[in-house]
Amino acid sequence: MECNNCEAPKRKIYGPHKKRPNKDLEEADIGNWVMLLRCPKCEKLWVSVPYEPYASFEYLILWDFTKEDWRMIHDLDNASTIHEWHGQSVKDLWSTLPDNERESVLSHRKRSYGRNPIDIPQNNEKIDINSLIKKINYD
Fold this sequence. Notes:
By secondary structure, the protein is α+β, with helices and mostly antiparallel strands. It has helices at about 65-75, 80-95, 100-110, 130-139; strands at about 15, 25-30, 35-40, 45-50, 55-65. It has one domain.
């Protein structure tokens, strides 16, 4: 069933806006230029990363794992893996946004001169968070 606040699980991404599109999300954890947010209505978690210029373009990606998983992966490499996963997710999902949010993404792409999660070349290997969590817990 879709949450009437954050629209999870149907919605998996929020694009950049002048203000956070889902104002009712609460801070669950904070890291190195990354934040974990929680929907107070459905308890779903969202990863928020601000992108240039001036860290003013925030994208949110649905996090289908636990807060503890997020912290564990964050602490592996000071959030580098989470940032890479987030960028890959934005690149994969931005075209699913509603028209007005896609327009905001296109504006961001123009304004950032290619320094955004869609146009920056990503690592060719997709980050599989589920496999990474299993590997960490196994080791």
